[in-house]
Amino acid sequence: MRLSGRITDEDVDVLRAALEQEAGAVDIDLRDVSLIDREAVKVLAFSESNGIGLRNCPAYIREWIDRERAHTKSTE
Question: Which DSSP state fits 54?
């Protein structure tokens, strides 16, 4: 699955629905993502934790996902 442009909280439900429809192994290509917000980062972090691959993930998104995952673990 390839994502591009801006991914905001308004897009999160559509992203979740698309991921639920996929059967088998899924990878998300983030090469063309230009902007992302916290809700979308949470979905990507959760998805990756459940075996979905994140390909061509920009460094700032990778750092944010890692921080979000660490924050979530510390609040559990």
Answer: E
Per DSSP, the three-state class of 76 is coil
Say if residues 1 and 24 touch (Cβ distance below 8 Å). no
Q: Which two tokens stand for residue 25?
A: 């192994």
Q: How is the beta sheet containing 2-7 ordered, strand by strand?
A: 2-7, 27-36, 53-55
Name the token pair of 36.
């992302």
Q: What is the pTM of this model?
A: 0.87
Place of tokens 């991921």: 19
Q: pLDDT per residue over 17-61, tens digit each?
A: 998 898 778 999 999 999 999 999 999 999 999 899 999 999 999
Q: What is the DSSP string of 22-51?
A: --S--EEEEEEEEEE-HHHHHHHHHHHHTT
Residue located via tokens 């972090």: 45
Q: Which two tokens stand for residue 52?
A: 């979905």
